Amino acid sequence: MSTQLSKRYAQALYEVLPPQTLQSAVSEFKQATAVLQDPQIREVFFHPRTPMNQKAQLVKLMDLSPILENFFLLTIEKSRDRLLPSMLDEFEKLVLAAHKTTTAQVLSAVPLQPQTVERIKSQLERMSGKTVVLESTVDPNMGGGLIIKMDGYVIDGSVNSSLQLLKKELLETNQ
């Protein structure tokens, strides 16, 4: 339910904004959401007992563009402000799609070399036909390999995944 609401609000914001302001609106939305994610602000802003007028005052202090400010105020009025981070995600997806761009998350056990990142990026662009913005994160606990997430698909080439698959195959052949 919340995903559908986030998509509807994001679509409404997308349709209201002039096309030339979409990129700057994403940046502004990200900055405003980052402010709200600050632990001290988050504790007060998202608390169920914080009055709407106090939340609205905080939004007005952020000095947002008129459309984005009204959007935030509407989410507060409709008690949907908890969905702002997911609304941002959905809004960013719409803007990226309009520019034939997508994001891909790459998880690796060690930091990737720039040429490796570029090779992965170009492969993903060739596969998707879109411009790819790569977000790389490191998790030493994954053992090795890569996990790539893009457009709802997961390419799991991690060592942990390979070991789990091997274990499953060995157990099936022993039965």
How are the SSEs ordered, and which strands pair?
Layout: H1 2-16, H2 22-37, H3 39-45, H4 52-61, H5 66-77, H6 84-98, E1 101-108, H7 114-128, E2 131-138, E3 145-150, E4 153-158, H8 159-173
Helix pairs in contact: 1-6, 2-6, 4-5
Describe the structure.
The chain is of the alpha+beta class and 175 residues long. α7 (114-128) links the parallel β1 and β2 (131-138). It is 60% helix and 16% strand. It contains eight helices and four strands; from the N terminus they run ααααααβαβββα. A four-stranded mixed sheet has the order 2-1-3-4, sandwiched between helices. It has two domains: 2-96, Orthogonal Bundle (Peroxidase, domain 1); 100-173, Glutaredoxin, CATH 3.40.30. The chain has helices at 2-16, 22-37, 39-45, 52-61, 66-77, 84-98, 114-128, 159-173; strands spanning 101-108, 131-138, 145-150, 153-158.
The structural domain count equals 2
Apparent shape: elongated
Using the coordinates above, name the CATH class of the largest domain. Answer: Mainly Alpha
Our Rg estimate from Cα atoms comes to: 20 Å
Using DSSP, what is the number of strands?
4
Q: How do the strands of the widest beta sheet line up side by side?
A: 2-1-3-4
Main sheet makeup: 4 strands, mixed
Observed structural traits:
Glutaredoxin; about 60% helix; alpha+beta; 8 helices; about 180 residues; 2 domains; Peroxidase, domain 1
Briefly say what this structure is.
The protein has 175 residues and is an alpha+beta fold. The protein contains 8 helices and 4 strands; from the N terminus they run H-H-H-H-H-H-E-H-E-E-E-H. The model has no long low-confidence stretch (mean pLDDT 91).
